[in-house]
Amino acid sequence: MKVSLEASYAACRRASRKSASNFLLSFWFLPREKRQAMYALYAFFRHTDDLGDNGGDTTQRQADLDAWRYQLQAALAGEFHDVRLPAVVDTLRKFDIPPQYLEQSIQGVETDLYPRQFENYEQLRNYCYQVASVVGLSCIRIWGLRDDIDLQPATDCGYAFQLTNILRDLREDALSGRVYLPSDELEAFGVTREMLTSGSDSEEFRALMRFQIARARDLFQSAERLTPSLHEDGRKIFTAMMSIYRNLLDRIAEDPEAVLHRRVRVSSWRKVKLLTSLAFSQLVPAPTLEPAPSINPTPRPEKVRHVV
Q: Most Cβ neighbours (<10 Å): which of 39, 61, 111, 193?
């Protein structure tokens, strides 16, 4: 496939806008080059997620993901089979984003093709790393980083976001055969899969939720350490995303048993308020950090669905 880089970035922008995600609005507060790169990354991760959730049978979805992985590998070698991939590869190279982050995201989506339960927190962390942390680790390279930073706060941010998603979707996932909370922790608190699927509230369930909410809050606190290391435009997007997810966790904490009966959401007006605040912050810029050169640190790959 021969396609110009400009046409590829335009295709990524169109594909991203079709998702109607609130996060896309925040891209407008980035300089054009960074904004285009975020469209390219978002288009890749969104398409990966859609392939795993396209309603087809498992065999077909696995085949689609295998084909997408092959297309990514071919694109990295200069052979393009999808109009979005030239822009994706250009973004990886321009911002020094390790390709393995994208490959790991495909692995994470593959995990969701099959009914599953994690035995322990280590397995859950590995899943969260693949479906959430690698997204954040990719984005922060576009947002801009100070040199020689610890990437653990960015990794913990992915854990926090994904754990919040898991708590929100607890019963819905259990009904589809997926229980993401670790088996050993469910057992320790006396909570069974049947209690989740039946929507039965109990003191045991509330204690489990308190434990998980406290864990997520600790992860959010760790993630805050990333803020000073980002360039100004990146800090504003990161702060907005952190606020949205923390608001969601707070909503869950106010009424934990609600997740057994409905999907808890952050209201649209709250999201609009956050993004409006972001827009006004452009009028009064925060003090800028010293510009940082691009870096190529090795992430801490702790063995440890989806943020996009």
A: 39
Burial of 133 (0-12, 13-18, 19+ CB in 10 A): buried
Residue-level pLDDT at 4: 93
Q: Rounded to 5 degrees, what angle do the CA atoms 122, 65, 168 make? A: 45
Residue 252: CB partners within 8 Å, gap ≥ 6? Answer: 164, 167, 168, 209, 213, 258, 259, 264
- Asked if 140 contacts 82 with a C-beta cutoff of 8 angstroms, the reply is no
Q: In 3-state terms, what secondary structure has residue 178?
A: strand
- Residue 212: CB partners within 8 Å, gap ≥ 6? 163, 167, 181
Q: Torsion angle, CA of 203/246/40/51, rounded to 10 degrees?
A: 10
Q: What is the pTM of this model?
A: 0.85
Q: Which residues pair with 230 in a beta bridge?
A: 145
